[in-house]
Amino acid sequence: MGTLSLAAAGAVPATSAAHQAAYPRVRPTVADYTQVTTSQTPPTQSQCASAGRRCFTPQAIQAAYNVGPLHSAGDDGRGQTIAVVDSYGSDTMAHDLHVFDRAFGIAPMCGEEGVSCASGMPTFSELHLQGSPATKAPPSTSSGPGQEDKSAWALEVALDVETAHAMAPGANILLVTTPTAETLGVQGFPQMMAAEQYVVAHHLATVISQSFASAEGAFGSAQSLEKLRYAFKSAAQDGVTVLGSSGDDGSAGSAKTPVGQGGSTLSGPAVEWPASDPLVTGVGGTNLCTDPGATSGRVVDSASPPGACQNAPGQSETGWTGSGGGYSGVFAKPDYQSGTLPAGSTAIGAMRGVPDISLQASPSTGALVYLSLPPDGQSGLKCGSTPCSTGWYDIGGTSLACPQWAGLVSIAAQLNHGGLGRINPALYKLASDPATYAADFNDVTVGNNTAETSVPGYAAGTGWDPVTGLGTPNAAKLLPDLVSAVHGG
């Protein structure tokens, strides 16, 4: 995690904290968060601006990506299920989802706290295949990561569930949790992949969202990574779309190191798995430089904070510094990246390029998320030098981009009357046609992902690039075309 701060009435000033050692634990790709208020009422833009941010409501995000016409036509993901995979889960998710929906006028879900279920309502449910330990602080003598990780994952769960639901309010959401998030090959990833295999084998979802990642170089070998891919192979055969956050370290990655010794930066550029997997749609991130108050269209705002938008006048989006991207050291370039890329694209050599597509991810142009922290949770999640508390958070990271894209894919699955399966071939096919690419994607051409000065990054540019992929969606245009392209149209 990066900068942590609390900016509410009577709260401590915004404070910086060192990047939290993240390895060898599997970690959520939440780059940065700020608690803006302790109220159940969402913060105002002026409150967010005082913390150097612009905070996007669901309606403002929908406007920026042209989702409104789909919702108006009844295309909101209904009949589809998004599986959100996270470690630990959150004890308060059913309550927090209800607060979020009431605050923004989003249709409630059966399974929310205090909601009476009715025929045709989407459902929120949880699947704990390996047990669901309560969120408890570790013993005072503990030297393990313990509660600190569980609190971070609770924030991740709230982010994933709330933003996926806001993007596709008619879709069902299945929160799939595992009771550990530790080492890469012993526990953590193996449990997550087993849970995803269960979801696919039992036809529980048409879309899987993965807001977690680890550098390819942190795995012991390509073979150890290969052993984890079986769920993705099953998903491709069963018509399930799998998406993964590309990571929040830009072009850098961290090596696997012994517990307690922190992470060490890999010497050269790296990409993160699962997003680097050719069977997964890798989701990168941008600074969303649109008006956070605009709800009827995409309106550029180059005046409001943050500096990344002020320094790029006229740009509706720029590549986010933390957007994981580059070239795989494990997977060869797949067929879908071997065809015609949009004119001016960065060349993809012999290895898989990451990411495929993007969405807002910069913490400074983040989304509002509501989280309740139980007393034990407050001992683990830090806002500067003090414990965080219940309230509204402004959050960024490719963790934000991935579940929102999952929501969009569920809308496409509704249009398709069923799961789309692998969408990467269709995305690149659409992008190969200049007119379709211009209509369906927002090409992000400014920015770079040099997050660590010791590791060279890449520049965003015209067409595909290793910061934002093909760009971000013009949803009302892209999603119907995506369905057609999946079927060879």
From TrEMBL:
Region (Disordered): 128-149, 245-265, 296-321
SUPFAM superfamilies linked: Subtilisin-like
Domain Peptidase S53, chain residue ranges per copy: 55-485
InterPro entries in the cross-refs: Peptidase_S8/S53_dom_sf (IPR036852), Peptidase_S8_Ser-AS (IPR023828), Sedolisin_dom (IPR030400), Tripeptidyl-peptidase_I (IPR050819)
Biased composition range(s): Low complexity: 131-146, 245-255
GO molecular function, one term: serine-type endopeptidase activity
Highest taxon above the source species: Bacteria
UniProt keyword terms in alphabetical order: Hydrolase, Protease, Serine protease
Any one of the GO BP annotations: proteolysis
PANTHER family: PROTEASE S8 TRIPEPTIDYL PEPTIDASE I CLN2, TRIPEPTIDYL-PEPTIDASE 1
Name of the featured protein: Peptidase S53 domain-containing protein
Organism: Streptomyces azureus
